[in-house]
Amino acid sequence: MLSTRFFSRTGAFSGCVMWLVITSHANFAPAAEPGDPVLSALHLTMSRRIGDARKWLDERDFKSLAQTAGGLRVLGGLLKARSDDESWQTATEAVLAAIGELSAAARAEDAAQCKAALDKLEQTAAAVQARQPTGQAQQALPASGGLRPLMLVMDGIRGDGKIDLLSGNVEDAKKSAYVLSELGRVVSNSVAGRPPDPKQWQESSAAFVEASLAAARSTEADAATMRQLLRNVSQRCDACHEMR
Ligand code: HEC
Question: The CATH number of the domain where 121 resides is what?
Fold first, then answer.
C-alpha cells in the first residue's frame, strides 16, 4: 500500500534529466571554485547553527545544544568534503574537532567548556571561510551519526528557507536549498541496513536532491515562486517519509 503510493509519486517526474544531473555531479566531482555556491551556502548555514548553539547555551538548554552540535557535525563533514587538498582538510578537521568538543561539553552539561568550544568553533570556521579550496570535491559519505541528526538538521535548514522568504530574502533561501541538495546526497548514501529497499531509497533521495537543486539554481527573484519551489522540496521529504 505504502510502496504503491511511493511509486505513483516517483512516476510523476521523468527520470532522464534528473539522472543526468545527479550522475554528472557524482562522477566528475568538480573542483570547488571561487564563488562555489555550495560553499558560501554551507558557510551561511554553519553560522546560523552556531548562532542557535549560542542561544541554547544562553538558555542552558544542553539537550538542544547537543542536538545542534549533531547537526553541525553533519555540516562540518560536508564542508570538509568540498575539497581534498591538504590544507583544506586540516582546516576543516579543526572545525570538526571543535564540534566534537562542543558535543562532549553539551553532554556533560558543562557551560564553561561549551563556551570555550563554541569560541573555538567560531574561530576555526572563520579561518575556513577565509580560505579558497584548490583540490577536488570528494564524494559525500554516509552520515556518521546515523539518520536522526541528519534529518533534524535538514528540518532546521528547511525552516531557515521559510524564514528567509518571510523577509523576502530569496537569495538566502536558495542557499538553504543548496545545502539541502548536498545533504540529500548524504541521505542517499545512508541507506545501509534499513528498509525500504535500496532502490526505492535511491530514487526517493535522488528526487529530493533534484527538487532541492531546482530551487537552489532557480533564477527567480520572486519570493512567491521560490516558496512554491521549496514546497516541492518538502513534498519530497514527505514522499520518503510515507514509505516508512
Ligand atoms: C530518502 C528518504 C528521506 C528523505 C528525502 C527525507 N527523510 Fe526525513 N526521515 C527519513 C527516515 C528513514 C527517518 C527515520 C529516521 C530514524 O528514525 O532513524 C526520517 C526522520 C525524519 C525526522 C524525525 C527525526 C527524529 O527522530 O526526531 C524529521 C524531523 C525528518 N525526517 C525531516 C525531514 C525533512 C525536513 C526532510 C526534507 C528536507 C526529510 N526528512 C527528507 C527519510 C527521509
Answer: 1.20.120.290
Domain span including residue 209: 1-30+139-244
Ligand 1 pocket, residue 180 CB under 6 Å: yes
Residue 151, C-alpha cell as written in the block: 534529518
- Among 123, 138, 153, where does a domain finish? 138
Assess whether 62 and 148 both reside in one domain.
no
CA 151 – ligand 1 centroid, Å: 5
> 2, 10, 22, 151: which to mutate for ligand 1, most atoms within 8 A of CB?
151
pTM: 0.86
In the chain the first and final C-alpha atoms are separated, in Å, by 11
Amino acid present at 224: A
- Grid cell locating 238: 514527505
Nearest residue to 104 via CA among 95, 96, 113: 113
Backbone angles phi, psi at 136, to 5 degrees: -90, 145
**How far does the centroid of ligand 1 lie from the alpha carbon of residue 152, in Å?**
7
Among the ranges given (28-37, 83-92, 190-199), the one the predictor scored with the smallest mean pLDDT: 28-37
Q: Is the peptide bond before 196 cis (omega within 30 degrees of 0)?
A: yes
pLDDT tens digits for range 24-77: 333 334 445 557 899 999 999 999 999 999 999 999 999 999 999 999 999 999
